[in-house]
Design goal:
single chain, about 210 residues, mainly beta
Length: about 210
């Protein structure tokens, strides 16, 4: 089951589906997430840059070589953006995960925001949004690519489209909207090979 942060306003917590779909874990407060592709520029310490495309409200996973996993979830609604940051750890049952809230930051167009403020682990800039264009139904029996990963330095970034210095990948059927800037995150990118387990993948997918 595809992970997605639930819609909630003014709640102490929300529920996030696990990868197995068998349970749900407490996560962190979210806002309504209309159907958009959100494009971000992310720099992870110590200076690993990436351009990311992700569906609004879904999670960009950043896994460090020490196996620490962070989830970054952009929420853009009515012109207002938030970035929800959590650390992701294994849950009590196989295939489940826990999301420990770390911060909720404000996202503004073309303005960098850092977490934490001093010696930031992530510096994130909202580059833009675009509506999701509905594609024709899939004829293949194989599940469509929803997440691909690129490893660069000590970080692996996983989303529906990722561009780093070491390579790029894109699940064009899941992130179909062209962002009209001519880069690999636009609608012309090719579908990437899916890693067997995106939570632990350290395999770069280059396109």
């Amino acid at each position: 089951m595809r992970q997605r942060i639930a819609v909630a306003v003014g709640m102490a917590f929300v529920l996030v589906a696990t990868t197995s779909g068998a349970a749900a874990q407490q996560a962190y407060t979210s806002t309504s997430a209309p159907p958009l592709i959100v494009k971000l520029n992310v720099v992870a310490a110590p200076g690993v840059p990436a351009v990311i495309a992700v569906r609004n409200g879904e999670i960009v996973r950043w896994t460090r070589t020490d196996k620490t996993v962070y989830g970054l979830s952009p929420i853009v609604a009515n012109g207002v953006g938030q970035l929800l940051i959590a650390q992701i750890t294994p849950g009590e049952t196989p295939g489940s995960e826990r999301f420990q809230a770390l911060a909720t930051l404000t996202l503004a167009q073309d303005k960098a925001t850092a977490f934490p403020t001093q010696n930031p682990l992530f510096t994130v800039t909202l580059l833009g949004t675009a509506p999701i264009v509905t594609q024709a139904a899939q004829t293949s029996s194989e599940a469509p690519c929803q997440t691909c990963c690129v490893t660069c330095g000590e970080w692996t970034a996983c989303a529906c489209a990722v561009k780093m210095d070491c390579g790029s990948c894109c699940c064009k059927d899941y992130c179909p909207t062209c962002l009209d800037d001519g880069d690999p995150l636009s609608g012309g990118c090719t579908a990437a090979t899916r890693p067997a387990d995106v939570r632990a993948s350290t395999t770069a997918v280059k396109r």
